[in-house]
């Protein structure tokens, strides 16, 4: 099993965690880190506390914005990982759900990384193919 860490600005990571728990119930090896008003030093300390137990385990890290503070702080620490680690920016709920579904199915971290990397972040609704209520 691999760890999943969500790190975001504000309380978004905790909110993602709440929604995921409403879907899956108790979720082991899932951590949320929020960058709130506490400042960068406190946030950095929180990151160090959360990742310390994960350094010898495969881990997928999701951040809200590639190049944002949570992403950059975790990228700096990624060289300390002793096992497979993958860092993603642009987290969204479908990717988190797919990650946890695949993990529950016993898929390894490499299979999950391949699948979620190929997922499109957005699904565009094609207005041309929409039916009007009177068409039905």
UniProtKB/TrEMBL annotation:
Localisation per UniProt entry: Cytoplasm
Domain of life: Bacteria
Coiled-coil zones: none
InterPro entries named among the record's database cross-references: Bacterial_PTS_sugar_comp, PTS_EIIA_man-typ, PTS_EIIA_man-typ_sf, PTS_IIA_man
Domain PTS EIIA type-4: 1-136
Keyword tags: Cytoplasm, Kinase, Phosphotransferase system, Sugar transport, Transferase, Transport
Protein name: PTS fructose transporter subunit IIA
């Amino acid at each position: 099993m691999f760890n999943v860490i969500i790190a975001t600005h504000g309380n978004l990571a905790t909110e993602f965690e709440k929604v995921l728990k409403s879907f899956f119930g108790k979720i082991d090896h899932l951590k949320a880190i929020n960058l709130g008003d506490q400042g960068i030093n406190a946030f950095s300390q929180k990151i160090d506390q959360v990742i310390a137990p994960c350094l010898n385990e495969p881990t997928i890290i999701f951040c809200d914005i590639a190049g944002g503070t949570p992403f950059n702080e975790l990228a700096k620490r990624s060289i300390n990982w002793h096992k497979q680690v993958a860092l993603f920016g642009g987290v969204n709920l479908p990717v988190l759900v797919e990650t946890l579904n695949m993990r529950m199915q016993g898929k390894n971290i490499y299979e999950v990384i391949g699948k979620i990397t190929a997922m499109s972040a957005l699904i565009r609704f094609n207005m041309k193919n929409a039916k009007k209520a009177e068409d039905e």
